[in-house]
């Protein structure tokens, strides 16, 4: 198979979809890998290193899309890339379709096969291709939150851990999954007074068992959230209902109850966000203020630490990529239930229910599509 790795062109996104080791392994299995010039530089992989293991460098993004049977990316195609995606081409990347109707419609029109990292799902319902980036974003959310709590950038002016004789900041984490757990660990490690809310009691039990004494677990409901936001300094949005739009837990009205300078970090922004006032921002211009409340809503947080994120991400994606390359998408997805759940759009049909529901578009059972594929 011919695999293409374009350079990420989302603002300040420096991750790349394959490491040099990954390229070497694909070539070892008989595949050809084209990498766009400079695609790996931000993650520490210069073109010469890719070439040293047999990777082929192409100068432009157009050439990469034109030649490849399968495109491996990190972030969803952005508008400039829509027209480059070809019929029957496999696109293996994060899509977060439920948060973007234009992207969904463009990929339907492209007639490509869209396999979304974020919906590949294991039998225990874990999301193996989201986990490593959620670990990064969870840890980063506290780093960013601490920074934006500083007064010169309009935060409350409070140090997360306080100092002896002074109370620490209060951190509220909405959603106690991967992002939430990592965020709580970091905030607790810095000495903050941390509360995690989740709707899953078993999850709250697990967290209670492993967290430090300065972390409290509370059931997530509208009343508890409304109470907690009033006394929190930093609120981290970390909820997820896989493949669907994030639930809006913090309303615009609730901002009025918060203290001026409260910082909201909405990690769930890539699924539409869990604050009503969330709108996606970029690393270059990461925050905005509404009602004196600082919002940080960067949809590709791990992109800012590509040395860590590229390796973390590709450690997880590579075992699936090699199956897609060796077997082709139909056989790979039929034989691997985890990959099957990654299929979101196939040649114009939406085969992931949450995405169809988000935009009230028709949903097609993936098995019907498979029957047609095999009949061809
Ligand atoms: N902005 C960025 O750069 C990044 C964003 N993310 C996003 O972060 C979000 C969280 O991801 P993970 O932690 O991996 O998901 P996860 O599935 O591990 O955890 C989500 C948690 O939210 C809980 N939840 C669902 N509804 C809730 C509610 N109403 N109240 C409280 N909790 C609720 C679930 O029970 C679950 O424990 C996702 O949208 C993911 O795409 C992940 C990585 C990077
Ligand atoms: C998960 C995701 O969207 C990211 O790592 O950018
Ligand atoms: Mg994202």
UniProtKB/TrEMBL annotation:
Return the InterPro entries for the record: Ala_DH, Ala_DH/PNT_CS2, AlaDH/PNT_N, AlaDH/PNT_NAD(H)-bd, NAD(P)-bd_dom_sf
The yes or no answer to whether the keyword Hydrolase is present is no
Catalytic reactions of this protein? L-alanine + NAD(+) + H2O = pyruvate + NH4(+) + NADH + H(+)
CDD domains recorded: L-AlaDH (cd05305)
Q: State a GO cellular component annotated for this protein.
A: plasma membrane
Q: List the active-site residues.
A: 96 (proton donor/acceptor), 270 (proton donor/acceptor)
Alanine dehydrogenase/pyridine nucleotide transhydrogenase NAD(H)-binding domain residues are 149-297
Entry keywords, A to Z: NAD, Nucleotide-binding, Oxidoreductase
Which PROSITE patterns does the protein's record reference? Answer: ALADH_PNT_2
GO MF annotation: an example:
alanine dehydrogenase activity
| Enzyme Commission (EC) number | 1.4.1.1
Sequence ranges assigned to domain Alanine dehydrogenase/pyridine nucleotide transhydrogenase N-terminal in this UniProt record: 4-137
One Gene Ontology term of the biological-process aspect is: L-alanine catabolic process
Q: Which residues bind substrate?
A: 15, 75
Q: Could you say which residues bind NAD(+) here?
A: 134, 198, 203, 220, 239-240, 267-270, 298-301
Family according to the record:
Belongs to the AlaDH/PNT family.
Name under which the protein is recorded: Alanine dehydrogenase
* Organism of origin: Bernardetia litoralis (strain ATCC 23117 / DSM 6794 / NBRC 15988 / NCIMB 1366 / Fx l1 / Sio-4)
The uppermost taxa in this organism's lineage are:
Bacteria, Pseudomonadati, Bacteroidota, Cytophagia, Cytophagales
